[in-house]
Design a protein that fits this description.
- By secondary structure, this protein is an alpha+beta fold.
- Strands 9-10-11-12-13-14 form a six-stranded antiparallel beta sheet, with helices on both faces. Strands 3-4-6-7-8 form a five-stranded mixed beta sheet. It has a three-stranded antiparallel beta sheet with strand order 2-1-5.
- A hairpin with a 2-residue loop joins strand 9 and strand 10.
Length: 329
Amino acid sequence: MDKKILTRMTFNLDNTKLEKAIEEYTASQKDVKKLEELIRLFRNSQVIVPVAFPKKADVNVVLKMLRGEALKKNEELRMFPVTVTDPKGNKYAPAFTSRDKILETKDFPYMIRVPAEQVIRNVTNEKSALVGVILNPQTKGFVFRKNAFTTDFSKVAAAPGQPAPQVKKVSKAEFTMLARNSVEKVQIPKRLFEKREEFIRELDEKGGDLLLEMFAKPFGDKVPSPYTIEDFSVMSLDIDDETTAICMELPQKGLFEHAALSAYIVRNPKTDAVHYYMIEKGPRGESNVLCNITPEGRHQELMSAPPVGSELTAVLDLIREEAEDADAD
């Protein structure tokens, strides 16, 4: 999807009152009455949310669903909510108050307009692993923790000193972590597995300029990106007829737990099989971790990071062992 899809009338939302209520609550230093009004406005709003469809879904059927057209019985598809994960592994339901708050659609290829109450139900469902809703995650993100939707405000107001429900404006540091996490663990592997040779060729040609562009994009025009071209390094290697590799050095400043220090793409030109690995910063006092992202988007911690300088060798060994295990089966 590109931004043209957002010109559809269904995305022409006017949530001015909701957006103003967010600003007023933020400025009020947690005024409970303003919070109650903010949540009431949110509950009665329509929002834009990203969704996913099964990989083998018929594109024409998907487009019919996005346009709100009636489907035949054999055309019905299940939609899956898309989540945003912070560096600590907490998952949020993303939602946008208007189309001008959506800076980039590559992370969210399909979007629909839904009542905010539906988003709230998904978050507060007993079986849900979501910890809250994040509004406008690509700009000045605002988080509603799950308990904000289940609190009895009359009791909160009547009990001096009782903490208000957890609702907060995302700080610049938190937004930077969310943005970086999204690029390293979602955008890069998504483009890799979907575009394969095209993305690898673009990365090979543009190198650090492409990475700088991807890492800076979530910040938009209003928030300065903390990254410069010097923060990135890309090296391409033709190892043998069946193995090419791209080694990427990622920003080392402002590192936080689970941030990727480096990333590795390995491709077999004959079979077009691709792999994506990262060296992630470990918790304080612990070793860094070698991880990967599967084609299905699953994040896996594989082993303690190998010594500096032997990361690619460790990645190639894991890929070879995986291939040998597959042949044995």
